[in-house]
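Holo prediction. Input below; ligand is iron/sulfur cluster.
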Amino acid sequence: MRVTFVTSGLEHLGIEALSAWVRQAGHEPALVYEARPFSSGSGTDSKLLARFLEPTPQETAERVIATKPDVVAFTSYSVTHRWALQVARELKRYVKTPIVFGGPHVSAAPERAIREPSIDAIVEGEGENALLELLECTERDRFGRTDIRNCTFRDNGSIVRNRVRGLLHDLDQIPWADKQGFYETVPAFEHEFYVISRRGCPFRCSFCEFSTFSKTYPGERPVRRRSVPHLIGELKHWKQRGRIRKVFFWDAIFTLDTKWMIEFADAYRREIGIPFECYTHPQTMNREMAQLLAEAGCIMVRVGVQSVNSDTLAAVGRKGDLDKIVQTLDVLAEYNLPYSVDHIIGLPGEGAAEQLDALKFYLKVKPKRILAHWMTYFPGTTVLEEARSQGILSDEDIERILDGDVGPGYMFGGNKEYRDHEELLHLCGVFDLLPLLPPAFIEWLLKNHRYRHLRGVGLIRQFGTLALALRGEPATREHVRHIFATTLGATRDALRRKLRRPFLRRRISQTTPSPFKATSAPRET
Ligand code: B12
Ligand code: SF4
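Structure of the complex:
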């Protein structure tokens, strides 16, 4: 079976895993990847550039049809869901091919997502075995089966949502990620190698996808980790090509399980030796972990701080408190490990005063970078329901969010009116400037609300990141290069496509029937 994966935004580890998994089972995966750097919530959004430079849903649908798929598999984040729907609708105008959706957005509300007529099945949660079963059914010409675990279908006017199967416990069963398709589109992706060593997280912060883990997977072990040889084998394979400058471990928390870390640090230092970046949580950081990270060659630790107010942390179910955060930053400093911090603006219960406290704290500890994200209410998180019951979000707001309208998103303003919103918009820029400018200037800015004169915070965010990269700190430089290479590559491809398009269209229409000539009536749904 030929399955064509469709995704947009940045490199997608889930798609890479699914692609490798179905290939191993004898199917033929293909990838249609649109970088869409100006509209996929990756930090470089611009409505104007998106309009002129990004492919239309029809153009993407043409690319999908050209791969001659038996099944089309979309992945969707809340920020990319509406785009994926537009492409799916275009596809359904011309071909009968079954369309399957998976990923965090549709997993949160599958019964709602399946109401969309262009979607034939939703896969909830971990997708490997459900997708395989769907492909096998299609192969036997029985795509209409409605009893496949993890899947939600429409069936004669009603909706059938099947139970979710157990998780894959042995992640070594999954072959190394299928990265080729992404690297062909954006060769610079290979300079910063994205990889995960485990799936899941032991914690349940209310704003995170994992907050509802035990509801979806009752009794399941939340964290599953690859063996060190499996991970190192994959890294060695790609290292041989000589293009990786930095490795990014995207595990939600990399510093779990000391025994594994000891084995990893030794093997990584000896066999890979490429500088790497990873995430930690204050609750899982201690002197031994810091030492292991340093020995293995870590050049940047991202610390999930989110708030420096211990009451807020407790209210959003986040383990740890300010003391734990201070201890974490202290041990990282002791081992000369540079760190950046993740911070959330607009957590429930927080306003301008809490952001000022946080800025004062960061002035003291001087992180290399502050990734200040706006609190975004995502489907399937416990905070969403809490917000409804506390009147923070109305039913209409929630409907909107479930349909994929999450506002300007993480970087540019979240998806609700926050307490002290105007004030927060100004303060947001100060988080970006803090690591760049002398502390005395930031103190001056904070005094007597001078930060209220900051304008164009969106630009400060984008240029602040660029300035950090230019300042020469290697981990951020590589990460920013990664994002900009995607943006430039996509712009170049778009311009080429636009210039070539009229000639191509003429040639196609003279030689072959257009893929958009409907071969059959659109499927009745
Ligand atoms: C690593 C990571 C990233 C990486 C890599 C993304 C990736 N998925 O590979 C990067 C940095 C690119 C990233 C970016 C963003 N991320 Co992110 N990311 C994560 C993180 C920490 C782990 C995801 C991961 O690698 N999982 C392991 C892989 C193997 O699983 P997976 O991708 O989920 O795919 C599995 C299933 O979902 C399913 N599946 C997925 N797609 C499909 C499709 C089909 C057809 C099928 C059958 C199954 C299926 O099967 C896969 C294999 O089992 C999660 C945190 C979390 N709680 O999971 C957030 C998370 C996924 N990210 C999130 C967000 C919001 C973002 C950003 C929008 C944030 C931003 N503005 O910067 C951007 C999106 C940019 C873009 N447009 O690409 C949210 C998504 C919430 C939502 N409802 O959309 C999460 C859940 C964090 C959270 N807030 O709770 N992210
Ligand atoms: S620690 Fe991070 S990944 Fe884990 S539940 Fe909290 S926010 Fe989600």
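Residues 506-525 have pLDDT under 50 and may be disordered. That is the main takeaway for now.
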